[in-house]
Design brief:
single chain, about 90 residues, mainly alpha, 434 Repressor (Amino-terminal Domain), 5 helices
């Protein structure tokens, strides 16, 4: 009986690690898209931060795929970048 919960935990842990890798890849693609749009518009992170009231450090973490964000942040970033929210997710 002791082995079953341990095995279940290990399977759950492996599944969790796989999901984290998948999430990381998506976040890096999103970050690259944000960065690409920002640079194409010749905006600094500070410019975008001022326009959309998202902290500059958060923008930096998003662009490098080190942070996740919610829908409202995507909408605010899109406004700050002068694009539609769907443009940020077009990768």
């Amino acid at each position: 009986m002791v082995e079953l919960p341990q095995l279940f935990f290990n399977n759950k842990f492996i599944f969790h690690a796989e999901m984290k890798e998948k999430d990381s890849a998506i976040l890096k693609k999103l970050g690259a898209q944000i960065l690409s749009i920002r640079l194409s518009k010749k905006l600094s992170q500070e410019d975008v931060s001022f326009r959309c009231e998202v902290d500059r450090a958060k923008i930096s973490k998003l662009e490098t795929g080190q942070a996740n964000c919610n829908v409202t942040t995507i909408i605010e970033l899109a406004k700050g970048l002068g694009v539609e929210p769907k443009d940020l997710l077009d990768f």
